[in-house]
Amino acid sequence: MEFRKNDILTLDIEDCGVDGEGIGKADGFTVFVKDAVIGDRIKAKIIKAKKNYGYGRLMEVITPSPYRVKPACSIARQCGGCQLQALSYEQQLKFKEKKVRGHLERIGGFQNLDMETIMGMEDPYHYRNKAQFPVGKNKDGKIITGFYAGRTHSIIDNRECILGVKQNKEVLDRVIGHMEKYHVQPYDEATGKGLVRHIMIRYGFHTDEMMVCLILNGDKIPAEKALVESLCEIPEMTSITINVNKKRNNVILGDQLRLLWGQSYITDSIGDISYQISPLSFFQVNPIQTEKLYGKALEYAGLTGNETVWDLYCGIGTISLFLAQKAKFVRGVEIVPQAIDNARENAKLNGIENVEFFVGKAEEVLPREYEKNGVYADVIVVDPPRKGCDEVLLNTILKMKPERVVYVSCDSATLARDLKVLCAEDYELVRVSTTDMFPQGVHVETVCLLSKKCPV
Questions:
Q1: Which of 62, 121, 338, 408 has its CA 20 to 30 A from that of 445?
Q2: 433 and 295: one domain?
Q3: Which residues does the annotation place in the binding site?
């Protein structure tokens, strides 16, 4: 039977796709349905049809799944941020474990994996230490802020995201109130006019320090002094900055920063290590789970105090400084110069001297240092972006032959691809652990331990 756009189908949702969408079949025709949950019986409207599969819109839940729950957020379905809120948290964790296992089996070719139980959260809400709120206008011309609807740049008005800290709302209320009082216009992507593009808020979970950074299509905001006075009434306020981004693109932050009040950074800690975090710094958004994740990476590294470690894609030195507590020496590599500046400052802040940081691409720095300067490593830790590791870097790791490789990944598909290369001859996958860094969303962090194969 041929199915076409706008057809209405009754589906039993039997599986879940990697992006959290429900999967059902009708006469062999597979349909992916956003917001459907495994175990649901639904009515779906076909919005896009291919030969053997299509995409549907959830029209009605005929019989709800036993795993279906009422989303804690009233606009969860419209907003693009939480793909799994209608799924019980227990099942969210199972979905993420299955996702990682599936990628490792199908892409990596690893079978009969003995994965450790996923590390979830006791309270899977209000865990984000950072939020970036776009600012715009609704159809009535009222200034709004919130989050983009899925796959769009239409703002869903929401100042009380249940994933963020509760203090976010007071910041947003004060900034929007200031804009209304002084007739400050939000940025309009269509015309390139208007001033306020985004409001970024960062919060230190262990220090209660708060940062507000206004991203502007200009150099200053009217009545800056009044805005600062208003924001400083919030007890946790520590840093107020302006970031200038006059480019017409989808990149949130520009390169130019100006301090309005307080420090140019906030401080927070992971375990015993303190970090200075600037508006441009990459810092894991879930500090509670980050400590578990990095603790697992440190455990897998198996450090005794005699090892030389390379930490690739090191950011502001978060993992590097964790490792330095147990290693003889750690060398970190990161492409972003400001991040390396932060890493060096963070090392000083913690009195850690057995570290060295390099600015550059990991796939350029490590081969250069290995081939020209003869550096070696007992352990190599990689924590790449979603695209995974460069082929040149993987080949260099294989040439250097460290005893152990610890791979921290935010994308299990590229993780599986890279592990297949590393484990083709010299290494074996020994341990796999997953951490739920993003409850209510589909992403999951994975840590893998590779050890050199024993000679036969």
A1: 338
A2: yes
A3: 284, 313, 334, 383
What are 202-212's pLDDT values in tens digits?
999 999 999 99
Residues 393 and 439 in one domain: yes
pTM (predicted TM-score)? 0.93
Q: Cα separations (Å) of 103 from 14, 108, 111, 297, 366?
A: 19, 7, 11, 20, 28
pLDDT tens-digit map of 336-368: 998 999 999 999 999 999 999 999 999 999 999
16-21 long-range contacts (CB < 8 A, ≥24 apart) are 16/95, 16/98, 18/99, 18/102, 18/413, 18/442, 19/83, 19/442, 20/83, 20/84, 20/87, 20/95, 20/441, 20/442, 21/83
First to last CA, the chain: 56
* Structure tokens given for 140: 């009535």
**Does residue 281 sit within a domain?**
no
User: Which one from 16, 79, 161, 410 is the annotated catalytic residue?
Assistant: 410
Q: Domain boundary at 211, 244, 270, which?
A: 270
Cα(156)–Cα(147) distance, rounded to whole angstroms? 5
Q: Are 362 and 313 in contact (CB under 8 A)?
A: yes
Active site residue 410: yes
pLDDT band at 281 (very low <50, low <70, confident <90, very high): confident
